[in-house]
Structures are given as structure tokens and as C-alpha cells.
Design a protein that fits this description.
The structure holds two protein chains of two kinds. By secondary structure, chain A is mainly alpha-helical. Chain A has helices spanning about 1-20, 25-45, 50-70, 85-105, 120-135, 140-145, 150-170, 175-180. The chains are: A mainly alpha, B mainly alpha.
Chain lengths: ~180, ~150
């Protein structure tokens, strides 16, 4: 259990530094540290699927952000914060904190599955009959691509739309793309 | 000279094969071991990002041009939708695992098992890899030439 508290302390420290530092590049690197800490936490919670996805997306996103930060000339944030924005952020974070306490009270104890307390939960069917119904040894794959494939379809659609939007919006400024209108 | 130093170029030339192979492994074995289409696709995309950082954008564009990447993206999305609709046609319900239940049960823990799940993993992997590659390619092409555009 101690490893989780150490990781939590690491993540919170990195988050505070990311908010408070004036250098944009340092802030981006601290955000990366948060992501790697979260990935380690998923790994120790025995969720290797999410850990792999988290670390891979973190690396890719970090590369893009660092590239953007380096190519910009202005990497230092100056000037005071807006009072209204700070108040709104603090109020929203406090509301989420209160709601989180309420939600965490309903969860079962650490390490016990949710269908030990809630009878007829859907996860019980997945764990017990996932291999027989779908034939996939990896239960996560059987959930995201068979039982809950609609979610994956929606996610793929979101990604597809985002790429179309980025390609259409950004190609007005590029000269190379204007020569090939059939993209 | 485009790209980085000769050390980075040679090392990334060796490493790119391993990264690409690892991405394909993660996609193909997604129904047996941790991983899957999304994670493997991001690994494939990051392999191309490594090449883009080391050798420059033009090298990658010769290898995988933007129109081809865009078409592969569409093919991945279409394949996933076709798998879903084939479930409706052949199995009677949208996204049903018709291949496992009717035609090809396979044996658990084998590579050929689980019906449509490996096929969906392949489609998602292709889609995610080309989409993220396209994002980075388009972002690196983008140059905000504000001084030239304001006169128009």
C-alpha cells in the first residue's frame, strides 16, 4: 500500500509544480511526470492494459507538447492571474472534491470486486462468462470489442471526426496541400 | 541538413524496426495479452514520429504520403463498421461476435480465436496509427504565416 501513497505524493507534487512554474517547458515536463506516475499506479493496481495505453499516449502527447513549446519564442508566462477565474476554479474543484467523497464512500473496500457487494452486477457476467461467450483470453478486449463495442465505435468516430476537422482547418494555411486538392 | 545528428539517425534507424514490430505484436495479440488496437496503433504512430524527428518531415512523407495515410485511416474506420454490420447481417444483431459463435470458434488462448475481436483490433490499430500520424504530420506542416495572409 505504501507505494500508492508515494506515487500519490509524487503526482500531487508534480501537479503543483506544473501549475506554479513560470516556464512553459518545465510545466509540460511536469505534466509528463503526472502521466508516468499515473501509469505506474495502474501497473501496481494490476491493470496492464490501461498502463500500456497511458504510457504510450503520454509519450506521444509529451513529444507534441515539447515540440510546440520549443518552436514558440515566448515560453514564459507573465502577468497576474485573473481573480474571477481563480475563484471559479477553486469553487469547481471544491464541488468535485465533495462529490468525490460521496462517490468513494459507495465503493467497496480496496481489492474486493464490486459484484461482491452489488448482486447481479454486469461485471460478474463479464468475469465469469467472458471467456466462454467471446473466446478472448484478455477480458478487457472481450469487454471493449464485444460486450461494449458501441463504446469503441463511438470512440473511433470521435477520432475520425477530429482528424477530418484538423486536416480541413489546417490545410488552408499550407501551400503543399493547396496543390493537391484531392486529399 | 534536415533532421538531427548522424548518431540519432543511425540509432533510430535500428530501433524503428523493433518499435514497429512491437506495435504489430501488441495489435495482433490484443485478445490474448494486455494491449489492443488503440495502444498498438499509438506505438506505430510514435514510430513514425521518431522517424520524423530524426530524419525530417520530407523523409516520412516519401515513405507514407499524406493522401495514402488519409485513405488508410478511412479503410480502418470502414473495416470496423463493416465488421459491425456483418454481425447484423450474419448474426442477427449489431456488433455480435458472429465469427466466434457460428463459423470459427477456434480454441481459447490460440492466436486464431475469439472471432471478430482480432479483426476489430486490426481495424482499430490501423485507424488509430494513421490518425495520430496524420495529426502530427498536419501540425508540423502548419505554419502560421500571418504576415502574408493579412494582405489578402
Amino acid at each position: 500500500m505504501a507505494i500508492f501513497y508515494i506515487l500519490l505524493l509524487f503526482i500531487i507534487t508534480a501537479a503543483i509544480i506544473a501549475v506554479e512554474t513560470k516556464n512553459l517547458l518545465s510545466a509540460v515536463i511536469c505534466v509528463g511526470a503526472i502521466g508516468f506516475g499515473a501509469s505506474l499506479m495502474f501497473l501496481f493496481l494490476r491493470a496492464p492494459d490501461i498502463a500500456i495505453t497511458q504510457i504510450v499516449v503520454e509519450v506521444l502527447g509529451l513529444i507534441i507538447l515539447i515540440r510546440v513549446c520549443i518552436s514558440r519564442e515566448l515560453t514564459f508566462i507573465s502577468g497576474p492571474r485573473e481573480f474571477f477565474a481563480v475563484v471559479v476554479s477553486v469553487v469547481i474543484i471544491f464541488a468535485i472534491f465533495l462529490a468525490g467523497i460521496k462517490v468513494l464512500e459507495t465503493l467497496p473496500a480496496f481489492g474486493t470486486p464490486i459484484f461482491a457487494e452489488v448482486p447481479d452486477a454486469a461485471s460478474q457476467t463479464y468475469v465469469e462468462e467472458g471467456l466462454r461467450k467471446t473466446g478472448a483470453a484478455n477480458l478487457v478486449a472481450s469487454v471493449i470489442l464485444d460486450f461494449r463495442a458501441y463504446d469503441t465505435l463511438g470512440e473511433a468516430t470521435v477520432l475520425f471526426t477530429a482528424i477530418i476537422g484538423a486536416t480541413v482547418i489546417l490545410r488552408k494555411k499550407t501551400k503543399k496541400l493547396l496543390e493537391e486538392p484531392d486529399v | 541538413m534536415k533532421g538531427m545528428t548522424i548518431i540519432v539517425k543511425i540509432i533510430s534507424g535500428w530501433v524503428k524496426v523493433l518499435i514497429f514490430l512491437f506495435g504489430i505484436y501488441i495489435i495482433l495479440f490484443g485478445h490474448l495479452t494486455p494491449g489492443g488496437g488503440f495502444a498498438g496503433g499509438v506505438i506505430l504512430a510514435s514510430c513514425y514520429v521518431l522517424l520524423m524527428l530524426a530524419f525530417g518531415r520530407e523523409f516520412v512523407e516519401e515513405n507514407l504520403p499524406l493522401p495514402l495515410a488519409s485513405k488508410l485511416d478511412c479503410v480502418g474506420a470502414l473495416a470496423f463498421a463493416v465488421i459491425a454490420i456483418l454481425g447484423l447481417v450474419l448474426g442477427g444483431s449489431f456488433f455480435i461476435n458472429f465469427l466466434y459463435q457460428k463459423y470459427l470458434p477456434g480454441e481459447a488462448l490460440n492466436l486464431i480465436s475469439a472471432g471478430t475481436i482480432p479483426l476489430s483490433n486490426l481495424a482499430i490499430g490501423l485507424k488509430v496509427a494513421t490518425s495520430l500520424f496524420l495529426v502530427i504530420l498536419v501540425l508540423s506542416m502548419f505554419r502560421p504565416d500571418m504576415s502574408g495572409d493579412k494582405k489578402e
